[in-house]
Each structure stands twice: as C-alpha cells, then as structure tokens.
What does this fold into?
Amino acid sequence: MSEATQLSSAPGIAVDGLEPVMSVRDLRTHFEQRHATLKAVDGVSFDLYAGETVGLVGESGSGKSVTGYSLLGLIDAPGRIVGGSVHLAGQQLVGLDAAGLRAVRGRQLAMIFQDPMATLNPVLTIGAQMQLALQAHGRIPEAQARARCVEVLRQVGIPDPERRLQAWPHQFSGGMRQRVAIAIALLHKPQVIVADEPTTALDVSIQAQILTEIHRLVQDSGTALLWISHDLATVAAIARRVLVMYAGRIVEEGPTRAVLHAPRHPYTAGLLGSLPQSSTPGQPLAQIPGSPPPLDALPAGCSFADRCPHAQARCREEAPPRVSDSDRAWRCHFPLHLADAEPRASGASGASGTR
Amino acid sequence: MRLDRFWMEYRDNRIAVVALVVALLMMAAALAAPWISPQDPYDLASLRLMDARKPPGHVNAEGTTYLLGTDAQGRDVLSAILHGLRLSIQISLIAGAIAFSLGATLGATAAFAGGRFESVIMRIVDLQLSFPAILLALVISAALGQGRWQMIAALVAAQYAYFARTTHGAAAAERSKDYVEAALSTPLPAWRVVMRHILPNCLPPLIVVGTVQVANAISLEATLSFLGLGLPVTEPSLGMLIANGFQYLLSGRYWISIYPGIALILLIVSINLVGDQVRDQFNPRLRR
Amino acid sequence: MKSDSAPIHLEARAVSRRFESPPGLSERVAGWFGTAPLPSVVRAVDLADLQVRRGEVLGLVGESGCGKSTLGRMMAGVLPPSAGEILLGGQPVMAPGPRGRKTTSRVQMIFQDPFASLDPRMRIGEALAEGPLAHGLVNAAGSAAYVAQWLQRVGLPAEAAQRYPHQFSGGQRQRIAIARALAMQPDTLICDEPVASLDVSIQAQVLNLFLELKADLSLTMVFISHHLGVVRHLCDRVAVMYLGRIVEVAPADALYAHPRHPYTRALLDSVPRLDLHSESDVIALPVPIQGELPSPLAPPPGCHFHLRCPQAQAQCRQDAPAVELVSAQHRVSCHRWREI
It folds into this structure.
C-alpha cells in the first residue's frame, strides 16, 4: 500500500541508515463481540531500530497495550489480528502458528508486563523460573545455564545473585520483582523487548531506578525497546522517538523532543496542555473536552474531530492519511506548527480546550 | 437493563432453557393440583379399593381413566404425584426462604462484626457443614416428630449453614471495599450499611446457592418421607409415594414407585440445570 | 499567603496508628515447637503533628507504606488513632453520640478507585441522597431536587441520578463521588489519591473541578497523592511523609524550590520531569534514590531515612530527629538540615 512504501522509503531515525529490526505495517486487531466489532488497533505502522527506545504513548482505550500484545501474538479470542504484518529479523509473525510463535517469544522478542506481582510464579524459585525460560529454547548444560542466570541478575542490579536464585518471589519487593522480570526478558539476548507500563505499578523512587537500569541495559546490549506508557514524562526521559496513539491509530510520531516542543497533532497538543506542568499552579488546566469515541463505533473521518478545537467539515468526512516529512509523521488535515519547530509557548497556542 | 442482558445470555444455552421450562411447568402444575388433578387423593371417600394396583391406562367401571395407574389404596397415581409435588415444592420453598434469610443475615453480620463474634459463629457453621445434611435432618426430624412445620424446621436447620457460609465469604470481600467505607464514614449506622449495601451485593452467589438448595431441600424432604419421617401418612409427598410402592416393584407393579420417582428426578435435575446456568452467568471469569 | 492567618481548622496532635495482627492459632502452635512468631506490628503513622488552616488545601505526599492514606482516614474520622487525637474545629472528629456524628459528617472523604467507591447495586440518586436523608439535611420530598443540584454542580446531568455506576466512565464516577461528598455539606474534604486512576485528560477535568470547588465553596481540603506535579498545582501547603513520619511541611512554592529534607530533595529529583522548553536533545534521566524502601514492619532505627540518605551520620542512626522550624511556615525533621 502507499502507506507502506511511504514508511520504508522515509529515512526514519536511521541508526546509520540500517535496516529496522522490527517492521510493523498496517496492524489491525479487532475484538468480535455480540453486536459490534471493537477495533482496538486499526492500522498501526512503525519501525524499530537496534539500540533505540521508542515510546508508545496513549490513554486507556487508545490501543497501546493491545498493540504490544499483538506483536507477541498474545491476543486471545474474542480478539484477533485481522490484518497487517509484523516483520522481525526476516520472519513474518502475523499468522505464524503456535509453535512458530513459541520459538520467537523469549528468544528474539521478549515482553515485560505491568504488574510485577503477577509476572512471577509464586510457587517457583527465581532460579527455577529463569531456568525454565532458558531451557525453553534448547537444552543448555546446567552449569552454563546457571552462569547465564547469575549474569543477567547481576546486570539488572540484584545484589548477591547466586544466593538470590534460591529465593522465592514473595521475598522480593515490587521493584526487585520487576528487575527479575527484566532479567528473564534479557536471558536470550532478544532483539526487541516490548515493555507494557513496566513502572506504573511501582513507587516513584523505584520507578527512577528501573528507568535508569533499563536505559543502561538497552544501550549496552543494542536491544530495541518499545516502551508503552500513558505517562509522557517517563517516556520523555527514556525514549528518543515517540508514537502517540489515539482510538486505535498512531496520530503522531517523531523525535521526542520535537514532538513535545511543537506537536503537530491537536491531540498531542491537548495532552501536553492538560498536564499540571503546563500551567501555573492554581490556574485551571487546559482540558480536552468530551471523551474518546467508542471503539466499536468509530466515526467516519478523523476520530478526534469531535473534541478538536480546530476541526472543520473535512475532518468529519475524511479520515486523515498518514503524512510524513523527514523524521516526523502525523495524521491530521490541519496540523499545527507546520512551518517551524519552535518551542511551543505554554498554554497559549495549540488546543485551548476551554470549558 | 441487566435483567434483559441476563436473559439474552441465558437463552444461548438451550438445555438450560428447556430445564427452566420443565421446572416452571412442574411448579405450575403442582400449584394448580387441586384443580387439575382428576382425583383428590386425600379424600378417602373417593377411593375405590377395587381399583387398587391397576396398571396405567386402566379404565374403571365409571369410565375414569387412571392415566398412570393406581396404588395400593386405589389412589390415582397421577393425582397423587401432582399433590405430592405440591407439598414437596411448598415445603422446600418455605424452608429455603427461611434458611436463606436466617443464614444470610447471620453470615453478613458475622462478617461485618468481626472479632470473636465472627469466629464463634463461623465455627458453629463450619461444624454444621461437616455433617451430611441428611444426617442432620434425620436427627432433628426424628426428635421433633411428624408434621409439616417440624419438617420445615429440620430442613432449615440442615440448610442455613450453606447460606451463612456463602454470605460470610461474599460479605467479607465487600466489607473491605471502598463504597462500604464511604458509607460508614458519612457516617451511617452499621445496620444500615449491612442491610442496604453489603447484603444486596452478596446476592449473586446467594442466588446460585439458593437455587441449588431448593433442589436439595426437595431431595432431602423426599428422603425423609421415604424413610417414614417428617410428614404424616395422611399427607403423602413424593417420597412417601415412592416408599409405598417399593414393595411392589419386583412384582411387576412398577408404576406405583417409578412414576413418582421420575417426577422427582425431573424436578430436581431441571432445577439443578437452571442453577448451573445461573452460576456460570454470574461467574465473571467465565465470561468471554 | 492568604490563609496564613486563618484559624486552624483540622488538627492532628501526636497521632499514631498501629496495626497489629496477633498470632493466630497455627502461629502459636508453631511457637510451642520453637519457631519464633514474626513481629507483626506496623507503625503506619508515628507521632504525626499536622495543622490545616481553614480554607487551605494541604497536600500529603509520600510513597507506598508512608502512612498518608492511614493518616487521611484518621482525619476523616473513619479510623480511630491508636494514640493522639484529631480535632476538627476543636471537636474530636470521631466521637460517639449525635454530636460526635455531626462532627464526623463535617469531614467527607473521596477515595482513589472510582470503580470501587460507589455501590454497584445502587442508583446514583439513591446513593447521593442516602447520607443527607439519614442526617436530616433534606427530606424525602426534596431529595430529588437536592441530588440534581449537586450532580449539576459537578458537571453531570440530572438524569444521571437514575443510572447505575457501571454506566459511567472513571472520570464521571469520580465526579459522582465528589458530588456524594459535597451533598453532605461538609466544611472539609479529605481526598485520597482522587486522580491517580484517571487518564491524563480526565485528570485535568477533575483537577479543574477541585480548583473551582476550592474557590466557590471555601472548602478546607487535604489532598493525598504520590504525584508531585498534581500536588504542586492544587495545594497551598505540602507535607511529605516517609515510613509513618512527617519529614517536612512547607508552602508549596518553598517546598519545590528549596526543599530542606534529604528525602524531599531526592524525591523531587527522582521524578521524571517533562521539560517542554529545553532545547537539548540529551535524554535527562531522573536521579534514583539509592536503596530499597524498607518494609513498614521493620523500619530502620533513628531517622527512618538514614539508610538511603547521602548525608547520614552517626546521630541519624541513633536518634529520631525532632521537628525544627526553618521559618514560620516551614518545618523539617532532620538532624542536619542546616548544613546541607
């Protein structure tokens, strides 16, 4: 499709013009329900390059978590990937059978989930779980496996790893458990790690620790990291590139700094404007009026039109196509700040969103 | 509204719908027994000893057809079944309702009060649950003697514990939820919070238990009557009918026991199937 | 600021709260066989002193296990303190009898989880009217209009009274919870992480509602949150808690600009800050606080923070620091605040 060629011909944030490690094209995941189909992910395309961290930002219902799960083929009925492609190291993941997916998961593609309490099996020791994950992709001699486990535990900053292998999950704090989850993800040196809100359930101070750890690990190992979050601040701290999702589609993408300084899409601008950091203490925050459209009844035209202060007739009739320039892309008929990349004045221009 | 949605999902399971229809039909027939049964089996004057032990379909001298045959006293088995059903259902529903109210209030109060009160009450309930219901009902029935209300008392004593335990579990879960704390902090008095907030939210598991317990009560009552306890001979319920016909089973006059037995099975199984479907629908984890 | 001279409205005096779970039967039996039972006393709040002036919004920040929710519940009259007292306008906030109940009804609480704080089986209208009816604020005839008034005050249509909670979104449910609290006509609100479970754009709507209510109704509010940005936006003064103790209290501007306690400083540094005007392309990572959050079951002796504090010294390991004044409005509990 024309969109696909647009993406691959655009230089993107090329890490020295290399091929992307993962290419997602027009991914669609729908949930079949009694009377309607929920279009959770409706045509998502992006590339991931080795060693870079990309943030996937959106609010609840935007489809960001479903995107992450779709990449790993973890969508259960009534959900289904109905279209699109996910290329990882020359292999097409959509449509792959269960055995094929199992071979990829954990080895080339790993995931870190949100709730560290639920990720680890409470009746197995840490060592046992790591061994299971290791041996799942081929038998490794005992000593070698053990050494590898100790090595990754050390990498994620767990003190005294040899002894900790015998520990049980309940003996670890939340932050430690998340580190173990990261360690398990790193066992096979995957090319891509998908992290679904990994620090949301953790305390602020632990969040900072995990952020720094992951950042360091990703840089050292050259893994591509897709960081899914609703928290713009966390994403800004760790991701060089950001994808903003709304109602199942990516509405804006680009280098984090540029997108935050001068957002092209009114939703991004509205999101930034509604943060407490964007206005003076005590002053009302700029709001985005209304709420996202129901995913089983997406409007024709732009999904954001009803809430957009700049919406015009064309926006309600015609869904905006993906338009890109150099390293940024957006889906908007009337994008903001098109002429420049100046820093956005706080609260003034962009979505005013007055009540 | 929620009832609509509930019914729409219920309809998906054909077996459950059939079961519901069967159970409702039987209850309707039982309720209407005095009007629709061909003969009044309690009216000793209307019985004809000559017609005793006649097979199904037998037509007697006056031209009345005994559709399901007659028993040892000349009673029309069909009429006896209808009246027996009526008695069984009446007793079980009343006992079930009393056990429900008693058990639910006890369980909810125990969960809310906490502390020693809760421990003591729930230990008693647990103790009782470890006895087979039949044993308990037998003992109480034998102690109290025969009669309708004695039977109901025995059934209530045997069954309230299930309701108490279920309610206790659900109420304990609800007790720690924010809306209960919000109600208490208004401040609202404790009894009000229990009655208006906690108990209504314990209803889903209670309805499931209630449905199954009605079937259990029917079966318990039949067992007790079969053994000759509970109801006097003059008010034959299904259990007693089965007992009466027992001695004739092997001599070829099967209809005296079998037809009441089939009626009993039909009723219990259909109620259980309805209860299963209700339980599955209320279980959020099974929802697709 | 404006409320400097306002009278003290809500006060916590040397309040402590302990949670104990006495060893159960199995643990006692294990004790006969030689295993020592685990200590099971949690000092959720440890000698907290806090004053909230009339009309001000006090922020209460801290991480999990710091005791802010417990302190909030005690201030709302939901939980009794193990020691110390909580006074509202001079009256104890939790007292028996009709006068005690009246005092309790003057403080209302808003909870974190909008999905759990409304009774799923009650219509909104009934839920809102229940408290006022029980306390005689309105009679049965006038309750419908009363409920409608409060629903509209929080930006919801009057028809919402006929519906059930599950028919509303998270943000709307939180507004309903606010309306329910306001319907009791309180003079004080305790808000326990009211926007934590909401999306950013909905958060903005609810925060704006709080700002409006603060201006229109002159409410005194205690705003509990772990989100420093939100607290900064809404609160006049902020109190920081760590493992059950209040470590610093200051006006919001002063706290964010010149924090005195090492924990406050470290906390502010460890939060990823969205700097919308920086030109640099360098990723600025937050600075983590070293060490792990200790378990509330076994807090470190002396100053609770000393194991993670870059400025800890011998005295910090032994003595719990006393409360000292940095200025009239700024208090801190640290042995070394003058030097660092």
About this structure: Residues 51 and 218 of chain A are 6 Å apart (CA to CA). Chain A has 13 helices and twelve strands. Chain A has a mean pLDDT of 85.
